[in-house]
Specification:
10-stranded antiparallel beta sheet, 6 helices, Thiol Ester Dehydrase, Chain A, alpha+beta, 2 domains
Length: 274
Amino acid sequence: MLPAFPRDLNVDIRLDDDPRYIGTIHDDSVARARGYKAALIPGAFVYGHISRVALQAWGEAWTIRGGMGARFLRPVYNGDRILFRVGMLEGGAAMRRAEVSVINEDGAEVASGWVGLPDAAPVVPDISAFTLIPRPEAPPVVSVGSLHPDTPLTTANRVLTQSDFEASLRSFGESEAFYESEDIVHSGCIMRLAMGDAHNSFRFPSPVVLTDIETQHFAQVRPGQRLATVGRVAQVYQRKGKHYLETEEFLLADGLLVARFVRTQIYAYDMPRS
């Protein structure tokens, strides 16, 4: 049972000093030059903070069999103080869940989602039809209309080192002692790794923007395990000048299925008419 609901959680969200942000919209100077008040926080980090609500509610059980979803509605900026407002626990044995609303200092909802836990271990999907495909040195270039459903994803298929594990906790600004004390890889980290495999399977015409994600955990991940992703392009579509890609990703740790992600992202934009 989820304790002390409803409840609020306040978080100051800050980017770490990862050099990958330099020269991108996740760099304060670049973002301000483009008219934003500060660097934009990647959706993966907002996701990671939402998962903190679930960890506080259910503890280790959630990292083994829990689920969550998130939809990203407005930008979150480096240094923002964000309120996570959690609703009442609802649903049945298959998934007891609570809605989560993410609100900025101006009172605007920047993301929404849910966290949940089934009473028993979920049914593990059959992924025997998927093949582990190494990422090529030069991923294929994607143009609008060239992506098709069932196109397979590739993977880096690499060991998550202790150094990687520690860096991920710093990146997410994780204040919960659980992950470090129990040597369990952060829920946001495993999502980000699967997302990285999906994004690096192709070369997109624009920086990819995460809009929606749903997650189901099946087991925990520990540093030192070899992580690989299998999956596919689930669908592609266009809406209001934006081109969307939905992927289905299965993350494996030493060959064991540990999580499924269904993710939607914008990968291209229509050129404005002159």
